[in-house]
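Example record

One chain of 300 residues, shown exactly as stored in the release files.
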Amino acid sequence: MSTATRSVSSVLTNAWGKPRYLPLVTALYVLWSLIPVGIAILFSFNAGRSRSVWQGFATRWYVGTPEAAESVLYDQSLRFALAQSLRLALLTMLVATPIGVALAIGLARWRGRGARPSNLLMLIPLVTPEIVMGVALFLVFDNLYDFVPFGTWAQFLGHVTFSISFVVIIVRGRLFAIGRDYEEAAMDLGATPWEAMRRVLLPLLAPALLASFAIVFAISIDDFVISQFLVAGADSVTIPVRLYSGARLAPPPSLNALATILMAVTIGAIVIAGLLFKLLGRRLGGGEGSALETVGRFEI
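Predicted structure tokens for this chain:
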């Protein structure tokens, strides 16, 4: 084997060497993923109806004239889809996150014969294909829980059902990192279990809570399968469902504008959560130090 061949082989097989090709592969993957998104965003500002030829910059597909009724602002179906997606995402975020936090704390603190099966049961929504989850929820609401009408309420319950597991995973990771030392120290100093949880544990869980809120919001507002199976009519169509139904025919450029708004809302939610995370980190002053200070206030 020549010296050049050995050198190339050493570069390719050295697991501890500098990752020479990883940045290139990462850049190619990012370009492959983002170029179609960028094209869709670009043509949402196209002045004409063409989805392949640039005809000038305009915002007609966002805030066009009422007479044309072809923009997101004046197209009733697009406006209803946007409102329905935001409504479901906000409701799911406000309900699924507290339930997931309570479930995570309970599973982390449970030491009994049913703890292991319960932890396994909690993971089922994560590993179940979404199409299977959608069919199962449709059959449940159609045959078993027929008192829940299809549409907003069924979609809301469906989103909560598969979102809780994500919250549990995030919060449990934070719980295992924190441990039980702070709670036990607070209770040793006279705090009740509820006071220890409210004044010590929950502040330490604040980063996980913010992450859970952002993840649940993003998952809910982007969901298509469950929303499609549980839709009841035009008033319960979400943005992904509207995009799918419109793209199968001759999609107007306003669908690009609607998709751009959806992406902007999702990214905005994550950015806001990140800013709140930084602000909360400054106020807590490191988390553990603040917890020790709070624990020190309890007296027997």
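Notes: Residues 76-295 form a domain with the MetI-like fold fold (CATH 1.10.3720.10).
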